[in-house]
## 1
Amino acid sequence: MSKARLNIAALAKLLKKNPHLKLKQSGGPPLPSGKEEKAQGGSNSYSRAAGGRRSDLGNRYFRSRWEANYARYLNLLIAQKQILAWDYECQTFYFESIKRGVRSYTPDFKVTLSDMSHEWHEVKGWMDDKSAVKLKRMARFYPAEKVTVIDDAWFEQAYKTGLDRCIPNWERGA
């Protein structure tokens, strides 16, 4: 299988030229009929994220708009055969020898690549101290696991290239 990947700009251009392309639903049973449920904020007291279930994503709960939008982007990559699958918060890594502070980490997405290998994608609006410690400990305790941080620069690029307008149900800020 080809290891070539489309960047955001190339995906946006591809979707604009091929409006008939449909996104494949990943990771869940058929969608129930009815309106999307939205929760009030996230579990973090400082979060302005729109946590809640998304009907277009298998009625899964996501902690933020960015995580839900990134899941939609991963569905696009599946439809384009760039990746095989993704899963959300499916594994927790424990830092056994740590006695204080951050003792575990659950990445946002496990992304299964075309060659059956996987990597972890972490969506971060900002990098607070606790998140930085988790990522450092992950690198130290699990050096074979690849973690990619999807940050505000990724989303800025998605908006600049028009990717957000090419993916159905993309959520914009309040």
## 2
Amino acid sequence: MRSINKVIIIGNLTRDPVMKVTQSNQPVVTFGVATNRQWSTRDNQKHGSTEFHEIVAWAKLAEICDKYIRKGNLVYIEGYLKTRSWEDTSGEGKRYRTEVVVQDIIMLEKRKHDGEQDSVDQEMEAAATSGFGGGAGFGGGMGGGMSNGSTGRSSDEPPLDELDINLGGLGEAISQDNF
């Protein structure tokens, strides 16, 4: 039986992207996005809730995110869910984090300068056609587990060097050692 793992969100960045580089020199960024939901009850009372999502982007798409998006920007993101697990370094047991791995991203806010917008469009088109998967329109990019050669990670951050890499849109899992 087939299954689907697809996420589409439109929301605002809760923090600036943080760029890291894997042991195999693959760029990866992480950032947060908040989405809001509003509804009314039968007696016309308005309610709302906010969800916070952890986002990961890879390769050229990671570089574009690092360069162009900032806290507060409104973005459209397409991707898939991936849950990572790791042993807590403080000995408190196993930890888990579910993230959205970006396959496509569109910046929904208008740019101040037309020339800047053209540059962004060209870079995103290049990322979409670079052979690392991709979605419709802008974006695309490599998705999957992370590998991080940096130190100074807090105990609630997963060890990023133990995970696989999944090429978004290709459906083929390969080992980090293959890069």
## 3
Amino acid sequence: MATNLEFIKEVVLDASGGSDTKIVLQNIFSEKYENYFITMTKIGSNIDYYVWSRLIDASDNEITGSEYAYASEQLKSYGTEYEGKSTGTTNWNFMSWVGSGDEDSGGMSLYIHNPYDANSYTFATGEGVGYYGTSGSVGYKFIGVHKVEERITGITFNGASDYSEFIVKVYGIK
């Protein structure tokens, strides 16, 4: 795979600017690229929670059907590792961690493959990290597939009841 990144979009929510219940990135995927790289930094929230995601179809609808499969390994500095997985669920789950507070901010990097190809499944691979209160750090390794051949134009990131801050950057890979 080529490694040249071309900037597409940045979305920023400052901690002083209110909150969002989810991060919505519409119309970021196009025929220009087959592969994308998304970074999320300074992910802050009012609660400790994991990040999960859904895709957006060509009609700008969030895909909520049981069309997703994923596997995620959660690596904890403070306890036993955890493996989350499903072959038929309504989202990609256990992608990263959101800490409750500025010092507990999380981060994630995610590759998305073939989203705009209406004749292909959409695939994702990624890593995430966060800090869980006073317990310690937690890391994630993630793989996912959207098991329906359809055009995907965007993605949402959910999990926290309110995101207090985040920086999301989207790149196309040439």
## 4
Amino acid sequence: MKAIKIFLFVTFSMLAIFAYVETGTAEEQRKDVLYTCNCGPDCKCNSVSTKPGNCACGQPMKWGHVVKIEGNEALLCTCKEGCKCSGLDPKDPTKCACGSSVKRVSLKGTGIYFCNCGGSCMCNTVSDSPGKCKCGMELKKVD
């Protein structure tokens, strides 16, 4: 009987630990994800957010992850949600490393804070609040 109790205790403890670890999803931990308007090139709403939702046009925003920041623009990988490709295709800078097209998004006036530790930053950190980038620099916002 004692062995059964120990077995059950260990089993439930392991389940509790796994449940705790799984509650913080990978998306919550990522600091390179932006959601943008996906209405097409004619749309000028420039909706950008660090959280999913609808753009100013009322359409669902599309997930993307930052592969580079150039000045006040974020270059986003447009592949499937969850992609973790790193950087641009060295042979074609209009595509990310996984081969999807890159979307340029202006961060000016969006309220998004971002790292720009040089003219061309590869830290790829974006946030909806002030703080520090993983490189140690203060995140900036362009109004």
